[in-house]
Each structure stands twice: as C-alpha cells, then as structure tokens.
Write a structure and sequence with these properties.
This protein is 37% helix and 14% strand. It is built from 15 helices and eleven strands. The strands form three sheets. It has a six-stranded parallel β-sheet, sandwiched between helices. Strands 7-8-9 form a three-stranded antiparallel β-sheet, covered by helices on one side.
Length: 382
C-alpha cells in the first residue's frame, strides 16, 4: 500500500474526548504513526454508548481513533514518566489537551519536552487562549458554542427565543481542524528550518472565527453598517423542500434558475404571475417566491428532481435523513462507508478519509485500538 503524505512522522498523542482525537486520527489517516497515550482508565470518550462487545469501545471512540496505537501509562508514576520521556526524542509532534499546569507538574510542559527534543512540534489544544481572562477555564463543546454566539443562531431562524446549541459537537470538530492545519504548518516550518515550536490551538477563538466568518456581517465594518447575523444564511425558508416521496434542497444561483425550477414544477412564468406581481413589498414577494418553490417541488419525486436538475443545470440535491445517508448512491459508489472486521468488536463501519492524493493516498491501516494494546510492542528506549 502506498504511504500517506505524513509517513515517517511520529505523533505522541495525549488527547481525549473529541477535540484532539479528531485531529490526530486525521494525521494518522495521512500516514503518521500516532501513539495514543492513555491513563489506566483510558480515554474518557471510550464509554458512553453501546458497543458491539466491550464497554470501553463505544461508538464515538470508534469513529475518532482509527490509525492509532494505544499505550497505557500511569503518568503519576516515575516509571511511566520515564517511558514517555524516552519516546519523545523519536517523535516529531507532541499534542495534548491537558491543562498546562497539570502537564507542567508531570514534567511534560513545553520547556521540559523541548529540552528532550528541540525540534519537536508541541501542540496544546486549549479551551481559551492563554492571553485572555478565560485562560485555564474548563471548556467543552456546549460551553464554546454558547460563548461564540452559535446558540443564538437557531432563535434567529425559527422564532423560538430560547437559545439552543447546534445538534452536533461542531465546536470540537471545527477546532480539531484548526489543530490539523496548525500541526501541518509547524511541520512545514520544521522541515525547512529544523526548528520546533510551541503551538496553542484555542477552541473558543477557533470556533468563533468559524461561526462569524459570515455572521459578523454588518459589524465587519466600524462603525457597523447593519446587524450581526448573515441575512441569507438565517432565512427561515432556507430549508429542504418536500417532493412527492421525500425532500430536496435547491439553491438557485440566479433568478433564471429559480424560474426554471418553478417551470419544471408546473409553475411557468412564476415571476410574472399575478400572485407574485400583486404581492405588496419585498417581504411579501419573498414569501410568495418560497410558496411557489414549495408547490413546484411537490410535482416530482426526489429521483426525478435529481435528473431534472442535472439536465437543466439547476442546483438540486436530495435531502437525506440520517438513515438515508448510509444508502446515498454517491457515497456507495465512492465506498465511503467501509465495513471492517475488528479483532475484538466484530464488524464496524468506518468512514473513508475524504481527501484524495494521487501520489500519497490516505488510508485506514489500523482499527481503533483496545486500551493499551500496543504498550508492549513500542520500542521503548529507556
């Protein structure tokens, strides 16, 4: 099997939960040798959901920890600390999401680690940047979503004034993506200069920059020229449309494309229709527009709309339920969901690394490890 682009890079991974493991799994997919250091109790994400066989191999753990080797060390003991110190000179990346004070007490702060390996890329995944008043506070997805303004988005769409979280651990995963590019950029600098460095990836700042990319909106300028919140993104009617047998999403790129969609759905000349022309004011016209789009969508099945959209160059896509995603024909064709046989957990479903490399393809080489299963196979130098 061809090696991934990070083949030859060793990552010492002391992360758990989601912010961190999502990053290091991706580095593993790209070919890095990821050595997951766990305490005797294991990554706390291991439990919390039904498992095929073992309670410490929960579903979310399985989706975040392939392409890693698991080593169990009790860093409260000098023997385990010595083992970890012996591993550091062999690695290029050291990444953790433990509080800085706790790591310093254990002897694995940046200063201590860089003495053992001056060229190490030392990445600290934190909740809040060390320069601000929130530094050192606990951070989880819910807390960061709330602080970033993300919990104010749904109330702006559906009229329910209650602040709510987005139904995904999106802050954890987005912040992990920031950690990925941080690691890669620091490795690139290391490759050119031989110089390691300390890298801090703050969850709050990372996710806020993601959320406000469009929602900063009028406050992009000082003084603000309008409100915060991207108006098109927060449109209440920005949602899938019902078809005869399911749902589709449509995003017309022009008035011509929208008119064509209405025509295909049995509403020719929608913009010249009496109900549209007689609508008083811009908001009323927008309401009529969405009314006609909903009516048009009901004229065909989802599969027919997929064909008609392609034939007429109208941007249309099926809207899948979570269950339907597993059967999506495109994902099936690209072998996205891959059934694999785990040594202890039986058959499990992995999601293929999505990015394609022509020379150094990403791959799944290791199934998610049991706690400490690779401890004895590591070439300990001490």
């Amino acid at each position: 099997m061809p090696h991934g682009p990070l083949h030859g890079v060793t990552v010492i991974d002391l992360t758990e939960y989601i912010f961190g493991p999502y990053c290091t799994q991706t580095l593993g997919d790209l070919g890095a040798d990821v050595i997951k250091i766990e305490g005797p109790e294991g990554d706390r994400q291991r439990g919390g959901s039904k498992s095929a066989v073992n309670a410490d191999m929960g579903a979310t753990y399985m989706t975040l920890n392939r392409n890693k080797r698991s080593v169990t060390l009790d860093l409260k003991t000098e023997e385990s600390r010595a083992r970890l110190r012996s591993l550091i000179p062999t690695a290029q990346v050291f990444i953790h999401n433990v509080r800085a004070e706790a790591m310093a007490r254990l002897g694995f702060g940046y200063e201590e680690v860089s003495k053992l390996n001056p060229s190490i890329v030392y990445v600290h995944c934190v909740g809040y940047g060390s320069d601000g008043p929130y530094a050192g506070r606990q951070a989880f997805d819910d807390l960061v979503q709330a602080a970033s303004g993300a919990s104010d988005l749904l109330p702006r769409v559906d009229g329910n004034p209650e602040m709510r979280l987005l139904p995904s651990y999106v802050a954890d995963k987005v912040s992990s993506m920031h950690a990925i590019y941080a690691v890669l950029a620091a490795l690139f600098h290391r490759e050119r200069s031989g110089e390691g460095q300390f890298v801090e990836v703050p969850m709050f700042e990372s996710f806020t920059s993601f959320i406000l990319a469009e929602h900063l909106w009028g406050a992009t300028f000082e003084p603000a020229v309008s409100h915060l919140g991207h108006t098109p993104a927060l449109a209440a009617d920005r949602r899938p449309l019902k078809t005869k047998d399911g749902h589709i999403a449509i995003q017309p790129v022009s008035r011509t494309a929208a008119a064509k969609f209405m025509e295909l759905g049995g509403i020719p000349n929608g913009y010249e229709s009496e109900r549209f022309l007689n609508a008083k004011g811009g908001k009323a016209k927008v309401a009529v527009y969405y009314e006609m789009m909903r009516e048009a969508a009901l004229a065909h099945t989802t599969e027919d709309w997929m064909r008609l959209g392609e034939e007429n160059r109208v941007p249309i896509m099926r809207a899948n339920t979570l269950d339907e995603v597993l059967e999506d024909p495109h994902l099936k064709a690209v072998d996205f969901f891959q059934l694999r046989e785990h040594a202890t957990e039986g058959t499990w479903r992995a999601m293929k690394p999505p990015v394609k490399f022509s020379k150094t393809p990403a791959s799944i080489r290791r199934d998610p490890p049991r706690p400490g299963q690779d401890t004895d196979s590591i070439d300990w130098k001490a």
